[in-house]
Amino acid sequence: NAGVTQTPKFRVLKTGQSMTLLCAQDMNHEYMYWYRQDPGMGLRLIHYSVGEGTTAKGEVPDGYNVSRLKKQNFLLGLESAAPSQTSVYFCASGRGVDTDTQYFGPGTRLTVL
Amino acid sequence: AQSVTQLGSHVSVSEGALVLLRCNYSSSVPPYLFWYVQYPNQGLQLLLKYTSAATLVKGINGFEAEFKKSETSFHLTKPSAHMSDAAEYFCAVSDLGTGRRALTFGSGTRLQVQP
Fold first, then answer.
1. Would strands A4-7 and A31-37 be described as parallel, antiparallel, or unpaired?
2. Beta bridge partners of A91
């Protein structure tokens, strides 16, 4: 049981380049989330999904797109990376119950030069 | 909307000393509250959560937290710090009523444990 996995672990991009971050979970969770973590700001919600084929915006969605074609996968895309997107990105999943635990992946550290 | 505030971005204690990490919440409805820990270069791991069953919640690694409605607080404590407790700690509140079932996090407190 791997839980939540993320690829890649590290990536360096130049301004304007594009990339996709992949998140996979093997717990059959309906809900999946992408957060970004910046120093002194905690984690902020970028996008989320309440089930296969659905996506919705979180608090800081600008510059990102997502897709949930399969229940177990949630992709985060950056079409034209900017230095302001330098951050650590975490994927999480959960059953969609308010009292339930969210399970987090190990994170992707992205640097945009 | 729910929110949490963590007082103190850095806390330093001696090994064996009491650990106290502060979290205050704002919510118009009874909140569900969580404490997560992040060890260096790792993801977040749940320490404990309050879901209205008991006001004193015990978690992993000897941590506990007490929900105090009158003080709108959910402070995290541990009687005796170990070197292995050095990490960043996040308080979070569940987004009730939004349908997102997401978490709103505080800014985090980095705990240092001195030998």
1. unpaired
2. A34
Which candidate from B49, B101, B105 shows the least CB-CB separation from A43? B105
- CB of B46 within 8 Å of a chain A CB? The answer is yes
Cβ–Cβ < 8 Å for B89, B35: yes
- Phi–psi pair at B92, nearest 5 degrees: -145, 155
Question: Is residue A52 within 8 Å of residue A70, measured between CB atoms?
Answer: yes
**Nearest of A18, A15, A29, A12 to residue A74 by alpha carbon:** A29
Q: What is the pLDDT of residues B53-97, one digit of tens each?
A: 789 999 999 999 999 999 999 999 999 999 999 999 999 998 877
Chain position carrying tokens 């895309």: A77
Structure tokens at B108: 């985090």
Report how far residue A33's alpha carbon sits from residue A95's, in angstroms, rounded to the nearest whole number.
11
Question: What distance in Å separates the CA atoms of residue A47 and residue A55, rounded to the nearest whole number?
Answer: 7
Yes or no, beta carbons of B100 and A56 under 8 Å apart: yes
